[in-house]
Amino acid sequence: MDKNLLLACAAIASLSTAACGLASDARADDQLPETVPKAAALEAADLLPITPFYTTPGKGEVYPGALIRFEKATDYTLPPHVSAYRILYHSLSATRQDVVSSAFILVPDGPRPASGWPVVAWAHGTSGVAQACAPSRMKDLYYGSEGLFKFPQAGLAVVGTDYHGLGTAGPHQYMNKDAQAYDVIYSVMAARAALPQLGADWVVDGHSQGGMASWSVAEMEHQIDDPHFLGTVSVSGTINMLDFIHPRREEGGAPFYLPMVAVGLAARYPDYKPQDMLTPVGMSHYDVVASKGCWFVDYASYFGKSGDQITKDGWTRNPDVQAMLKEDEIGKQEIKGPLFVITGGGDVSVPPGGVRDVARAACHNGISLAFRLYPGLDHDPTMANSTDDQIAWIKDRFNGKTFSSDCGKF
């Protein structure tokens, strides 16, 4: 059951289960866990054990994109005719320091195309900020039921970074567009070193946190100018960070993300103190969020709490928060290749108005893009229900089809 669909239903108590899209006979364990023990048990059931693959120091050359090791993975729950691998590789932090990241690769079975499998670099949405929260350590790769497996079934290879600090040791610079974009770009380089059957042409596709990362990749690629980079999909992206961390009351929002934001701020800015942002209620589970729990545990830890209870008045005026907002600005820099921006009209996690505002501003700044709003859909349902449209758009890029802009039409 989709976690963010359930989140929306939990936030709007007056909705019936049918209105939330839940079957009337939905089991009790289909609901979001409201206690930390239940949430921890749910996460443990999907989690694969940490192995030396993630923790053994690497040998060899150290440069961004350098492959440290790879292995075939047989412990994922995959659809038929799809093979999986894991890689460990060097990447960069937001301040361009060497870090180690992990990723998974999905490859269709069968004869490879003459030019190799076309590659989709996948940037995932928030899974948590603790080391255990890497999608490559989850049996379903976190997005298995939300359209991810449709990509290899459509003949596209997938390279999915975990982002450094998830899976690997060290802090996760949560919601930092540069850090996450580096991890995406260098995962593709490392994946090609591991699997020569991957082709040179690639696109990037990301959801939520990854929707910001994917747009940031397009900005970086304008400078890199890789001729094989063909375009970007940004789904429900946190491309308007202020609207995400401090939404208007009518926009909803999900306050339990805020302690994760505090973890990301502390990882990026050494002098930042989470206590400057979080109230005692907000700090009450901070250590759990930072080092133990993932999405479900983080949700349960702050179940029933509002943003006003978790955060202090005026916290967004902190200099480090202002630096984060500046660093995460989207829509002002030139990008390489076509851009497809998607949002859901019923998104309570990443308000669609903020996504549309950034897309319009990007058009005003000379960035050509296609925009699609899916009426009524919440955060994760937007990803799941738009996957076929994403794949069709991506295949148009690989097939060299002319791109049409929607600027001025939304």
From TrEMBL:
Task: Kindly list the GO molecular function terms attached to this UniProt entry.
Answer: triacylglycerol lipase activity
Query: Record's Pfam families?
Result: LIP
Q: Where is the signal peptide?
A: 1-28
Instruction: Give a yes or no for keyword Cytoplasm in this entry.
Output: no
What species is this protein from? Answer: Komagataeibacter swingsii
What does the record list as GO biological process?
A: lipid catabolic process
Q: Which UniProt keywords apply?
A: Signal
Identification of the protein by name:
Lipase
